[in-house]
Amino acid sequence: MKLALWIAILVSLILSGCDSKTSLQRYFVDRSENKDFVVFDVSPGIINVDKTKLSAEQKEALASFDKMNILAFKTNKTNGAEYDAESKKLTELLKDEQYQQLMKVGSGKDGASVSFVGSEDNINEFVLFAKRKESGFVVVRILGDDMNPNNILNMISVLKSADIDSTQLEPLKALMQ
Question: Angle at the Cα of 115 (from 111 to 117), degrees rounded to 5?
Fold first, then answer.
């Protein structure tokens, strides 16, 4: 009897300790089977570049990048209400205290924001959320280790000169058709 009581207490403590809030990662996973969404990952292998021609800062930026998770929702004549509801859910998720907003542009129905998780010198995740009622929205999670704003700027310069492996972007191309 004592053992059963201790197990019940342990299970209740574990369950009460679980966070019932939806995370952005959970949001991506939950939408992966929905026909109105396209969810996919992009690995660093998408960036084909001659590393011998990169500066030390560009090499550091490339090394800090682990992967990108991309979620896109395309609006059509029948899913306007779903767009509104999902856009609102994402806006609320990004208001969580773990996400620090770097910038926001646009109005309530159209716009974009850039947020991050971590400290300014040790960023674990950048999040870009862009939406437009007429076309839909996209959320891009850039995951890495010890990233900083300079890494992102250097990564952009690497991308400009890189040969991008577009096969990883096929799900996004299919959505745009």
Answer: 160
Q: Report the largest interatomic distance among the alpha carbons of the chain, rounded to a whole angstrom.
A: 69
What are the CA-CA distances from residue 113 to residues 18, 64, 98, 103 (Å)? 29, 22, 15, 6
Mean pLDDT of 30-54: 86
Is pTM, for the whole model, over 0.90?
no
Tell me: the pLDDT tens digits for 124-151?
998 999 999 899 999 999 898 888 888 8
DSSP state at residue 99: P
Count of beta carbons in the 10 Å neighbourhood of residue 4 = 8
CA 123 – CA 113 distance, rounded (Å): 16
The token pair that represents 42 in the structure block? 């992009």
Q: How far apart are CA 13 and CA 21, in angstroms?
A: 17
Name every residue whose Cβ is closer than 8 Å to that of residue 132 and which is 6 or more positions away in sequence. Answer: 109, 110
Decide: helix, strand or coil at residue 144.
strand
Q: In the structure, how many helices (H) and strands (E) does the chain have?
A: 6, 8
Residue 70 CB partners (closer than 8 Å, separation 6+) = 38, 39, 40, 41, 42, 138, 139, 140, 141, 172
Look up residue 174 and give its two tokens.
């299919």
User: Domain map of the chain by residue range?
Assistant: 21-176
Query: Over pLDDT 90: what percentage of the chain?
Result: 39
